[in-house]
Amino acid sequence: MHGRLKLRPPDAARRRQREEKLRLYREAMDTLLGEPLPDQVLSLTGSVLAANPDVGTCWNLRRRVLGALGGDWVPSELSFVGQCLGVNPKSYGAWHHRGWVLARAPPAGREDLALCERLLAADPRNFHAWEHRRTLVARQDAEAELAFAGDLLSRDFSNFSAWHHRLRLLAPSRDCGAGGGGALPPQRMKEELELVQNAVFTDPTDQSAWVYLRCILSRAPPPPRVICVHVDREDATVAVVFSRPVKVDPECPELTATLDGAALPGPWRSGEGRCLLTLSLLLAALDPRGHAQEIREHLRSLQDADPLRSGFVADVRSRFESVLGILGAGEGLSLPAKELTVMPLLEHVATITRLELAHNELRALPAALGALRRLRELDLSDNHVTELGSAPPLPRLELLRLDRNPIALPAALSPLALWPRLSRLGLAETPLGSAPDGPARVTELLPAVDITFG
Description:
By secondary structure, the chain is of the alpha/beta class. The chain has four domains: 24-218, Protein prenylyltransferase (Serine Threonine Protein Phosphatase 5, Tetratricopeptide repeat), CATH 1.25.40.120; 229-263, no CATH class; 271-327, no CATH class; 329-454, Ribonuclease Inhibitor (Leucine-rich repeat, LRR (right-handed beta-alpha superhelix)), CATH 3.80.10. Helices cover 45% and strands 8% of the residues. It has a six-stranded parallel β-sheet with strand order 5-6-7-8-9-10, with no helix packed on it. The longest helix is centred in the N-terminal third of the chain and has 21 residues, at 12-32. The relative contact order is 0.03. The model is unreliable at 173-181 (pLDDT under 50).
């Protein structure tokens, strides 16, 4: 085609050169995957990685030898990784290996910062170099890093990575301290807005500065407004409703109440009970069995204190009860009368043969019920199930109890016709069982099943 450069096939000499490189690579890998001596490992991996730093097996073998090697090998290894990064500045294996070496060495100095600067000068969006630099300066002077990012932005305001680096450095200002309330200090906010203004005037159509502006403005939310104050003399409490959530933390006292110039004594607590929820989740993560009763009490208090989120807390409690039951499950899983609104995590007990969920608050069959391929008995009596939906066939289920569920239509049971071994079905005290033609229609739908209506 016109305008296209025709590429010549490699000549014989170049082809022979590639074949020789391939032969050497295969020989080196065959030796490395055998039982080479440590000196051979370092030599062979060095030759392979110098040509292609993306061979992860070589890095792993090299770390295994270096970890057992005495002497001060860190400077030479850092120099070698630097050479590999010169071949491929975005090699995952090389960057991981450099981090591994630095973890076994004194804190990195100016050499690594200079390496990052060289690589970022060649490619400002080398995210490996950015992350490595952030790790190096995590405990150093943030102002110097802000100046470094500002210098890169002065060369090119379209450097998204430099904007992102700057925002990451400013993120700690969201903690309590200067500025408070999650906002940047006023002077810092002014400086950042001036920087954005210069970038926008330089190129109004560039997106990077506008994105950074939105992020910076989110660091300065308006102060909360008091919407309502309710004083309850009987309970000796003061309830305050704010326009947005307010942090209540003894280590960061941002909320005080005064009356006639004197501070009111007493602790603050969240009316939404979020601290109780966090505490319950932490206790469940640490020792769900040992703290079971305490967790139940906390979740019950949450439902009483926050009726609007009662359903959410009920689902959290259901998940907790499911975890407790699964931890003690053997051939069967029994969770009757646990006030379950959902039944998650069944896929973790796929080998059980019996599942008892009677006297709960379930409105549908558990979502992962199809994973129980060995289940033979399922008891869902005294729940709120109205239909089976698209329940998958359970190949070994023999007994299904749906007594005292609000099932009113025979079509709600139609999926059961595909369950091959179902032989007994309980429908006692259901609307379907008391309907004039209900039993006959169900019997017609499931002729091979022994159905109990009484």
